[in-house]
Amino acid sequence: MESVVKTDSKGRKKVLNACLEPCAIEKGMRLIGSKWTGSIIYHLKNEPVRFNDLARMLGGASKKMIDQRLKELEARGMVLRTVVNERPVAVTYELTEFGRSALHILEQLRVWSESHQLD
């Protein structure tokens, strides 16, 4: 619902449909807007990725930060964690259908960011 500012006959302003709780955009940004979260989702778009490979792809992120974000995404149902029964034991991460649903938004954000040469 969109908020609107109206002025009454005495010049007083009143907001109609004010956001009393986080709006849908804020809720979405809380989920995918954390540092490195969008990049993690984007790098998982094609196939399951092992943790260390993901850490290499995200060169500027610490392993602690990546681990924290992956746990958050797993708890929210966006990422599936799988233990691979090989030697050495490895863990892979892949997107769920819910996680994949964010890819279109992230792709648009990537294009917008590149077209405006954002730093």
Written account of the structure:
This is Transcriptional regulator. The protein is 45% helix and 18% strand. The chain contains 6 helices and 5 strands. The protein has helices spanning 24-32, 37-43, 51-57, 63-75, 97-100, 103-115, and strands spanning 4-7, 13-16, 49-50, 79-84, 90-95. It has a 3-stranded antiparallel beta sheet. A two-stranded antiparallel ribbon has the order 1-2. Strand 4 and strand 5 (90-95) form a beta hairpin.
Shape: elongated
**CATH T-level topology:** Arc Repressor Mutant, subunit A
Reading the helices and strands in chain order gives EEHHEHHEEHH
Strand portion, in percent?
A: 15-25%
Q: What is the helical fraction, as a range of percent?
A: 40-55%
CATH architecture grouping: Orthogonal Bundle
Number of domains: 1
Q: How many strand segments? A: 5
Alpha-beta content class:
alpha+beta
**Mean pLDDT figure:** 93
Overall CATH class: Mainly Alpha
List the uncertain runs. Answer: none
Discrete helix count:
6
Biggest sheet, in brief? 3 strands, antiparallel
Give the termini distance in whole angstroms. 32 Å
Instruction: Give the spatial strand order of the biggest sheet.
Output: 3-5-4
Q: What is the C-alpha radius of gyration, as a whole number of Å?
A: 20 Å
The CATH homologous superfamily is called Winged helix-like DNA-binding domain superfamily/Winged helix DNA-binding domain
Organism: Pseudoalteromonas rubra
InterPro entries: HTH_HxlR (IPR002577), WH-like_DNA-bd_sf (IPR036388), WH_DNA-bd_sf (IPR036390)
GO molecular function: DNA binding
Domain HTH hxlR-type: 23-119
